[in-house]
Records
---
Amino acid sequence: MSIIISPSILSADFANLERDIKLVEKAGADWLHIDVMDGHFVPNITIGVPVVNSIRKVTDMPLDVHLMIENPEKYIKQFAQAGADIITFHYEAVDDIEHIVNLIKSLGVKAGMSIKPATAAQDILQYLPILDLLLVMTVEPGFGGQKFMQDCAEKIPLIKEKAHNNLIIQVDGGINAETARICTQYGANSLVAGNYIYKSGDISYAISSLRN
Ligand code: DX5
Ligand code: ZN
């Protein structure tokens, strides 16, 4: 499976969002990562459904929507209707995992689940068979530009060992060319990067350096 690169628009200029989306699309990004934060699950507020709806109109890239919100089940349908292709909720925010995964899949969207740094891989192995994507956070969710946590990436080999062949194992937080290599060697096959791509000064170079 080749590596899926998903630039996080959290590091883009929100006043020039269409321009910044086109920049990563032209540079060969595979997906577009959209960080939704509610000020409760994480101490930051970002993007909601209307923005996803507007983004859908200006790009054909798959929209990879990362929900860092409480009660995600309340909003899944709206994000699907707004044009999300992948919806990732947080394990720590949900009681009935199977229910929410079935809900996401019933809307024709790929189902992802994310784990925060404090959540052990062992705790979520039972859910791998029903997931399309497992997102291992390599920073505490909430902000771009934080430092990569190596011990989070060390969860990947066990997940990889227990995963089905089509599971996408994604990492998010502090990803650059060097930390990307660590994660892909452990078995990650999708990389989210915000600051490294948008603040690099050379978006095409940044994306290709993540891929190699
Ligand atoms: C953090 C978000 C990330 C963030 C990554 O909570 O989930 O997607 O944008 O930003 P960088 O790559 O700058 O760490
Ligand atoms: Zn994210």
---
Amino acid sequence: MTVKGAEFWYPRQGNGTGGFPLFTFEPGPDHASYIIEGQHRLTGTVRPSGAKNAVLPIMAAILLTKEPCTIVNVPALRDVSMMMGILTALGARIETGTTAGQPSLTIQVKDIASTAGPPDLMGEIRSSIFIMGPLLAREGECMVSYPGGCAIGPRPIDLHLKGLRLLGASISEEYGRITARTTGLRGADIHLDFPSVGATENLMMAAVLAEGCTVIHNAAKEPEIVDLQDFLNLIGANIRGAGTDTIRIVGRSSLGGGAHAVIPDRIEAGTLAIAACATGGDVRLAGTIPDHLLALTAKLGEMGAEITEEDDGTLRVRANRRLRATDIKTLPYPGFATDLQPQIMALMSLADGTSILTETVFEKRFNHVEELRRMGADIRVDGRTAVIKGPARLTGTTVQASDLRAGAGLVIAALAAEGTSVVRGVEHIERGYEGLEVKLGSLGAVIKKKDPYPKVRASTG
Ligand code: UD1
């Protein structure tokens, strides 16, 4: 698959920020690897990038307005590049730049050029589904293919479709393509069977231009949903309640433009915090929102790490001794994030005692277990529960990242392991981590990215 639009190329800076890697991507075993020499203690200060899960729905939300919008603190991620490709195919003009020293995107969709999502790109990222709500609201029509994303179990979109139907869309599915049409969306009372993050966001975006009032009950409460509300309200929407389980939206006839800085990535911050603990390190995470990390920091504290919040909001994470085992269940926010489950599993395998880790959000999110075992971890899986016996003596070997967060878990194990590890599948990791090797390297990790062959820059054709 070729991502079109090399004119969007934005070179990566020395500190790991910037850079929208648009390149030819053929998934396969020959992709880039991280070569990691383990057992180097992480120390120093690092600043996580803007949140992937905040920027993607906000990019899609810009389809709702004719006016230009600027998003600031945009992370340079593969998924962001993919979304840029999708929006461009729909008629967006996108400019990359910097605003107040931070990478930014200015997007304007004066006219919708097409209401059909490009199938090749739609299949690459789960977030492609976010174009549905805005296109239906603005144009009364959209055609999408089933979204792609990480291989972490079935990821149906029934809740998105059910909600859109309640708002007045008629939806048909044929040959893997979904067509939705409406003569005008109307506000409705929607009760989500599960607090799905994506469905909550898609329905919020559809409802902002619907006639009348929409109430989403049992909504997801993730901070990224609050960020989407803040952005939409900034450009003229009327939404209240994001961050609670009831969101109320009063429809408007049109929206304007504006500039919005996305929140810091709590999952990246959490990953770096766990990496610090796994190496017995002392790391300051600058520019984070510590409240977004409470479920993790409470658990790290229970395990024996020392977490302190400094005056300027910097979070200091120290692990001076071997950590203790603990039990964790992943849950929708404010529970423990499923996106930190592989990383904490790597840490649990190093801790003293038996930990129990239960995955309740996704059905098949234990792809990393086999690879961690190959490094020496003692993990037994029974259904959705993993029993991790520690402390294991992890040793370096070649492992394969099967998805984004599984890759992050393997990197953490490799940072703590004796000897050298090769983590393959870096293309998955780059979907959600900006310059991970640069950031870890700045903290003292010995990590190199090895490309098997030079990247081919995309053509603009
Ligand atoms: C978002 C995040 C992802 C995170 C996940 C859970 C983005 C871009 N991605 O994904 O990083 O892991 O939240 O915190 O924000 N479900 C249904 N039907 C639906 C929708 C979801 O059954 O229509 C199920 C899913 O299969 C899954 C669970 O609900 O088991 C959670 O999914 P959801 O909250 O929708 O996750 P995403 O929005 O896909």
